Amino acid sequence: MSKLPAQYKFLDISDYGRPVARYIAKAFQNTSITPVHVTCMFIVSGVFAILAMVYQQYWLALFLLVLKSVLDAADGELARIKETPSYTGRYFDSIADILLNAGIFYTLYSISTSSLLMAVIAFACLQLQGTLYNYYYVILRNKVEGDTTSRVFETETPTALPGEKQQTVSFLFAIYRMLYGAFDAVIYALDRNAYSGSILPNWFMTCLSFFGLGFQLLLIGVLLVAGLKDFIVPLFIMFSFLVFVFIGIRRTWYSC
Question: Which domains does the chain have, with CATH numbers?
Answer without folding.
Answer: 6-253 (1.20.120.1760)
